[in-house]
Amino acid sequence: MRWSKVRVLHDPPRYTFFLVDLFHYSFVGWVRYRNSRHVIGSINNVTISHKCGKWYVAIQTEYDVEPSIPLGNEVGIDMGITRFATLSNGQYFEPINSFKTAQRQLAKLQCQMSHKTPLSHNWKKAKNKVSRLHSRIANIRRHYLHQISAQISKNHAIVYVEDLQVGHMSKSAKGDMTHPGKRVKQKSGLNRSILDQSWYEFRRQLDYKLLWRGGHLVAVNPKNTSRTCPKYGHISAQNRQTQSNFECVACGYKLNADEVGAINILRAGRARLACEVNDAVRSSATGTH
Fold first, then answer.
1. Catalytic residue (one of 78, 196, 207, 259)
2. Which residues of the chain have pLDDT under 50?
3. Is 162 annotated as catalytic?
4. In this predicted structure, what is the pLDDT of residue 283?
5. What is the CATH number of domain 73-280?
6. Of 74, 196, 258, 259, catalytic
7. What is the pLDDT at residue 241?
8. Is 64 a catalytic residue?
9. pTM of this prediction?
10. Using CA atoms, how far apart are residues 223 and 238, in angstroms rounded to an integer?
């Protein structure tokens, strides 16, 4: 079975794939590769890329898939830094903080690189080390996001998330000569933490994985989701005295602040879906008369 042919593409450049770990590229010849998964369906194209000293082959195939029936109920998700994601059912996921973990090592490698002569052999070696560490940080983060998004999409049919504007949230606080920024150091640390979470990438992964399984992702306005009491709906900035604790000043309701945000996101998402359904019904009724 080791040498059983799988597929041959006759359009140049020409690729020949074998079952385990070899393929033939017309300009290179036979190449050994690590087959991470079984190739299913007919091969449409193959992309070979080089990144951080490693070569990758991406095989795009086409095959029929049975339509999925979404499983599970609906859930709201509050994104944060202390807790990466908090669900309205009380479950939460800790942040991976891959950049923060490797920050000192990265600074050391970048310092070593800065002392090398630009474009020299030693400079290129130092640059490759920095690139490999950046790639490792990104891979750790991406793998963690895939794990969480897969788990949530498998267990919930409808997911409500905050429509966060990460670009505005991580905007520099330095200011300019006429309007200097305040608490620049603290804001810089917050910006790094926000970007290290990759909220947008998590939302992107969650979106297409839910579509695969017949589910649906709904983005809602995050305004006042962390300030609204889930019990009676009282809205006040004083309800959230600290980053992690929520206590309603009107009724005394207490809960973790991130979980309160997730509950309010769930309710806001349900309200949005209900409005969309009502609008669709009205439009349909208007069109029939």
1. 78
2. 1-20
3. yes
4. 62
5. 3.30.420
6. 258
7. 82
8. no
9. 0.73
10. 15
